Amino acid sequence: MIRRKTQREIDVMFLAGQIVAKVLKVLQEMVVPGISTFDLDQKAEELIRNLGARPAFKGYNGFPGSICISINEEVIHGIPKKSVKIKEGDIVKIDIGAEYNGYYADSATTIPVGKVSPEVENLLEVGRKALEIGISNAKPGNHLSDISHSIESFVLAHNMSVVKSFVGHGIGRELHEEPQVPNYGPPGTGPILEPGIALAIEPMVNLGKEDVVILKDGWTVITRDKKPSCHFEHTVIVQDGEPLITTRLK
Question: Model pTM greater than 0.85?
Answer without folding.
Answer: yes
